[in-house]
Design goal:
This protein is an alpha/beta fold. It is 25% helix and 32% strand. The strands form four sheets. A seven-stranded mixed beta sheet has the order 1-2-3-4-5-8-9. The protein has a five-stranded mixed beta sheet with strand order 10-11-12-13-14, covered by helices on one side. A two-stranded antiparallel ribbon has the order 6-7. Bound molecules: zinc ion. Zinc ion is lined by residues 104, 106-107, 205, 250-251.
Length: 277
């Protein structure tokens, strides 16, 4: 099964790598949303009459021989990241930059390799993340029950001296800017890519389901700091609409754009029909 999706931002080839999918009822995903409003808004998004669909995905950026890995997916036996990299002809050892939106296990599991899953997979890459995110997982137990799992993925990267922790917004390559977007986790970042007048915004988990574009004030059950997550969400949605950017969110099935919506203000418009298969 290949449901990867490729498009261009200027001269940069962008490939959304798909790892798998899951589903959950609106009341679980958005526990704080007013029930009536939530059920009405989610009704047309349900995939089976009961649940909202989520996917697990990440992004590859490629310009010539240079490949940037943006989030590494959950890892595990189905190596979609390896397959997608293989299609570019670039070996993991040749990847120079890995960007981590945040360190939840479904975004960093693919960072490690080796028979005992203890070696950095991208052994020569700078692994970019925000200092706040590194500290959240490695220097406090703020990550709760996920902490041991996340540490197992991050520690080999740290031990190999591959971590590039940033305190603030930074342009790591021409046109590739990391922007702090805290809330989902304390050190969450998003990626803004600009090339030849075109813009891509990788939201990461700023928006975990497209219905949140219509209702940015709802909290996702996965948001660590709900109030901050909501204000970040409003800001990024605004940026994406103003720039006409293509947006990619880790858990939304397809890339899309943020468009004006007469009822809610903003809505997510998919670039292709939804494909939940
Ligand atoms: Zn996630």
């Amino acid at each position: 099964m290949s449901t990867d999706f490729t498009f261009r931002t200027g001269d940069i080839e962008c490939t959304v790598v798909r790892y798998g999918e899951s589903a959950g009822p609106p009341a679980y995903l958005f526990p704080d949303a007013p029930a009536g409003e939530r059920d009405a808004a989610c009704a047309r998004h349900l995939i089976d009459g009961t649940n909202l669909g989520l996917v697990y995905s990440s992004l590859l950026l490629r310009r010539g021989e240079q490949v940037v890995v943006v989030d590494a997916g959950p890892g595990g036996s189905h190596d979609a990241l390896g397959d997608a990299l293989g299609a570019t002809g670039v070996e993991p050892d040749s990847v120079q930059h890995v960007i981590l939106s945040h360190a939840h296990p479904d975004h960093v599991g693919g960072l490690i390799a080796g028979r005992d899953k203890s070696q950095p997979r991208f052994s020569r890459a700078d692994h970019h993340l925000l200092t706040d995110e590194w500290n959240h997982w490695m220097e406090s137990d703020g990550g709760g029950p996920m902490t041991p799992q996340t540490r197992a993925f991050l520690e080999p990267i740290g031990a190999a001296g591959l971590v590039e922790a940033h305190d603030d917004e930074v342009e790591i390559l021409p046109g590739v800017v990391l922007v702090p977007t805290p809330g989902h986790t304390p050190g969450h970042l998003s990626v803004i890519v600009r090339d030849r007048g075109e813009t891509l915004v990788y939201l990461g988990d700023v928006v975990t389901h497209s219905v949140m574009v219509e209702h940015p004030g709802w909290y996702s059950v996965f948001d660590t700091i709900p109030n901050t997550a909501a204000s970040t969400r409003r800001r990024l949605i605004q940026t994406a609409e103003e720039t006409g950017a293509v947006v990619v969110a880790s858990h939304i099935p397809t890339p899309g754009r943020i468009v004006p919506d007469p009822e809610s203000g903003h809505a997510f418009a998919s670039l292709e029909p939804h494909n939940h298969g």
